[in-house]
Specification:
The protein has about 270 residues and is an all-beta fold. Helix content is about 0%, strand content about 60%. The protein has one domain.
């Protein structure tokens, strides 16, 4: 990760809802052979399964991205002079829609499966902070706030998140009883995480303004473990649960800041601070 900045892009609360299209999901709650069962369920059921099954999956995700570097401005209150106060403003990301699509091949005689899936989330969020007219307060970036800083009166922050992950795993089925099955899977996952930050500061209409852009990209890969549980309550009704853990190891493109200073009388200046 960067020397002064680390992206912590973690999905805090994942709510998966709206349409889980899983062709043949009901087969998972049955043993992969012809059986007569009345042990766990009230009604006996006889099933004849093919040697191979293929499913396509689509999930709608409602996710909230976050990071530890979303402080886009500081507001300084110069009075009283011996102990001025500072207030920090952050961009507060909202929930956004994403999706996950995948395909699974079941080998029923070996009671195993091979699965590949792709998770995608691209989101943008913004925030604005302005100083009321008639006050002596000022806003600005953290490295330029105080008596020597430009007296900006308006600050805007914008962040764009991009998250794409691809996973491939191989699972082995466990048949606890006629109504309860599980799959324990292991595989590999790859991820690309990108964060683009843009901060904009204005002194007053028609005077000096400043724009700061900070892009960061992380590429990683690592092992993954999955656990899928299926329990059939009765014919046509079942409970499905899933848990996934992935450890990503990779490298991040070292972040840098691009600063643009604009004023009515001077040309645009662009530089990279050390």
């Amino acid at each position: 990760m960067g020397e002064h900045q680390t992206i912590l892009f973690e999905v805090k609360r994942m709510i998966q809802w709206i349409a889980k299209t899983l062709v043949g999901l009901w087969v998972l709650a049955q043993p992969f052979q012809a059986v007569e069962s009345s042990e766990c369920c009230n009604s006996p059921l006889s099933i004849a399964c093919p040697r191979y099954l293929f499913t396509l999956e689509a999930e709608a995700l409602y996710l909230q991205p976050t990071a530890s570097n979303l402080h886009y401005c500081a507001e300084a209150q110069p009075l009283p002079l011996p102990s001025p106060d500072w207030f920090i403003d952050d961009i507060d990301p909202d929930y956004h829609w994403g999706f996950e699509i995948g395909a699974t091949a079941f080998l029923t005689e070996q009671y195993t499966k091979l699965k590949v899936n792709w998770t995608h989330l691209h989101a943008t969020d913004s925030a604005t902070h302005s100083i009321p007219v008639g006050t002596q307060n000022m806003v600005g970036p953290f490295f330029e706030i105080g008596p020597d800083g430009a007296p900006y009166t308006l600050a805007k922050g914008h962040v764009k998140f991009e998250y794409d992950a691809i996973n491939l795993d191989y699972g082995i089925g466990i048949n606890f009883c006629d109504c309860a099955t599980a799959y324990l899977s292991a595989g590999i996952g790859g991820v690309r995480i990108k964060e683009d930050l843009t901060f904009f500061y204005v002194e007053s209409p028609g005077t000096i303004s400043r724009s700061i852009k900070t892009p960061t990209t992380f590429w990683g890969a690592g092992p993954q473990l999955d656990l899928d549980l299926n329990f059939r309550l009765c014919q046509g009704l079942q409970l499905v649960g899933k848990g996934t853990t992935t450890l990503f190891v990779g490298s991040s493109k070292k972040p840098h800041r691009l600063l643009f200073d604009l004023s009515p009388s001077d040309p645009v200046r662009c530089f990279r601070p050390k």
